[in-house]
């Protein structure tokens, strides 16, 4: 069983930055393909970014160049650095091991002036 706990969300003005963290339990983390997803009100959950166990990354076009996904295997932690935030980035952000289907509880990010 894997537990994922996100943190770091909050209210930020347009153009601001936030760093999300996802602490994972279990020994699977260093070998796991992981990702960040988000769900805005009234919309389906969507892909944001993924990272392989070797550090290769992939991003949604809407966040490319603004968001950076990274991982620290020694700390069993996944990160999402979000810069130049826009109101349309407002959503609940989820950490996931999409392969076996593990999800965190989500953390709210609100971008508003």
Which features characterize this protein?
mainly beta, 11 strands, single chain, seven-stranded mixed beta sheet, four-stranded antiparallel beta sheet
Give the secondary structure arrangement, pairings included.
Layout: E1 4-7, E2 10-12, E3 18-24, E4 34-39, E5 46-51, E6 57-59, E7 67-72, E8 77-82, E9 91-97, E10 102-103, E11 107-111
Parallel strand pairs: 2-11
Antiparallel strand pairs: 1-3, 3-8, 4-5, 4-9, 5-6, 7-8, 9-10, 9-11
Structure description:
Helices cover about 0% and strands about 50% of the residues. It has about 110 residues and is mostly beta strands. The model has no long low-confidence stretch (mean pLDDT about 95).
Q: What's the helical proportion of residues?
A: under 10%
**Alpha-beta classification:** mainly beta
Secondary-structure element pattern, one letter each: EEEEEEEEEEE
Q: Biggest β-sheet: count, sense, barrel?
A: 7 strands, mixed
Poorly predicted runs: none
Strand content: over 45%
Q: Mean pLDDT, nearest integer?
A: 95
Radius of gyration over all CA atoms, rounded = 13 Å
- What global shape is seen? globular
The number of helical segments is 0
End-to-end Cα distance, whole Å, is 40 Å
Number of strand segments: 11
């Amino acid at each position: 069983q894997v537990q994922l706990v996100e943190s770091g969300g909050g209210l930020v003005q347009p153009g601001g930055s936030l760093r999300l963290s996802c602490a994972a339990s279990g020994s699977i983390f260093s070998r796991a393909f992981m990702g960040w997803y988000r769900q805005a009100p009234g919309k389906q959950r969507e892909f944001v970014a993924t990272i392989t166990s070797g550090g290769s990354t992939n991003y949604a076009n809407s966040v490319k160049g603004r968001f950076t996904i990274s991982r620290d295997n020694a700390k069993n932690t996944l990160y999402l650095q979000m810069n130049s935030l826009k109101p349309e980035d407002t959503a609940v952000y989820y950490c996931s091991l999409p392969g076996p289907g593990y999800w965190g509880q989500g953390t709210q990010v609100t971008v508003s002036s």
